[in-house]
Amino acid sequence: LVDLLNLPNQLASPALKLYPNPFHTELTIETTPEFLSGQLKIYSIHGQLLYQQTIEQTGFTIPTQSFPSGIYYLQIISKEGKQHYRKVVKTGERWK
Length: 96
Description:
This protein is mainly beta. It has no helices and seven strands.
């Protein structure tokens, strides 16, 4: 489990773009080349790791049909240990 209460309060950074937010069936992620071969992790609001993958390209989409509606925290970590966090929201129906 991860202590989500002590995550750094980060301003929007060009190193990480997420859309749409809120999301429904998929979440698109764009990052800078410095995060290639790094890690992407998605945590529940309770700090449980739900999804993890190696970042192999600067733009990709994650299927999220299996995620229940709620708030999630996304973390990307470069090979050098640089980290960015974002809060994302999964809705029960497509956002209009």
